[in-house]
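Appendix B. Chain record.
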Amino acid sequence: MKRFFGSVRARATFAATLVVAIALVAAGAAVLLSLRSNLIGQANTHAKSDALEVGRQVAGSIAYADLDLDDGDETPVKIVDQRGKVVAAGEELENIVLPDSAEARAGALSTTDDDEDDEESSGGGIPAVGLLSEPVLLGEGTATTDGETEEYRFAAVKATTRADVTLTIYAGSPLSAEKDAVSTALTTMLIGFPLLLLTVGGATYVVTGRALRPVEGIRSEMGAITASEDLSRRVPEPDTHDEIARLARTTNETLAALETSVERQRAFVADASHELRSPIASLRTQLEVGAAHPELLDLEGAVEDTVRLQSLAADLLLLARLDAGERPPPNARFDLAKVVREEVSSRGGVTLDSVESVELRGSRNQICRVLGNLLDNAGRHARDRVAVTLRTDAEGAVLQVADDGSGVPQADRDRIFERFVRLDESRARDDGGAGLGLAIARDIATRHGGTLTVGDAPGGGALFELRLPLHPPST
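Structure tokens predicted for this chain:
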């Protein structure tokens, strides 16, 4: 059972069938109650009509033997006097059992009209000679005619004959039609409702199965992708415009992003391994030579390789944190102008044109790292001059670092922000880092809600422009 209801298809079928079943039961009950009420109302009307008809005959002083009381079990009628003695009845009528207290209520018939069939009336008085009281509905009772007892709706009316004799006429209308109609309707419902529920359940099961067929295709393909670890595969996209099609498209977009991320990670690991291999090998060689021949140990070179290795490890650790989604603290604030002045003052040959103060939200250390990387890059490529400019505009703070070097070719302006990328003229590791500085700078700018681009400086060379919003997006 758990396995069956573990299926969306089964749960949808069960829910749809249950809703339809509840609706059918409610509708069926309403129909039966309405049908019974209408038929009982008709029986009440007939009982009152029959009582009035016989009452008119009695009020007209027609002899008991001439009264029309011979409708048998269709309209059982009996007439009693004020002492309760039966003075006339249908020939086939054997007995009438009236509802509880009917006799007492019939003894106080109302002379006012009663429009509500189900309201039991009382009060009034004896009608004048030759007149009738208004009929009173007594409710359900039984009558035995020709040996058979049936249920009836009874009404009573009083009539005073011209001989000033007051009589009470009881007349009934059979409920057999109501019972037959209700029984037929109930039988029809008991047969039809299960068939209808089976039809609804079967249709829902088939339609749901067809609707969920693409989902099964997506699930199957995702299972195959997981088993094969081939992220280049894509799930099938149904040629529709519904939620399942959107799910398939989103899944493929996720797979594409995941494939890109994995490829980037693999390339990162490969490049990092390559970059680490060189200083580690150099350091090991120097230490091995120093161990065998201490007089030949290049201590200065070993320290340089160690520093370079330490710097590379720090860059890799920072990139790992950025890739993990690390964002600056939302409430941290700092003065960018002060950071720029402190960084520029520690370097020679760098000019500064800055505003007095630019307060930003974010990580002071990371922005300082961005500026340091830009200045290191500019220092490696500049001939004589590096210029730093800080200003603000309507969008936020703008920090520019320009050099008078050869500039960055148009085709390489996006590529230089990739990891471990060095242009041809700076391939030598002695002339620069591992190609991570600009990649780190752009990642930090992005985490702060900003951008980092490169263009042409006004006097020739490269112009790096960092834009940061005054209020970066919250995490």
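Further analysis of this model is presented in Appendix C.
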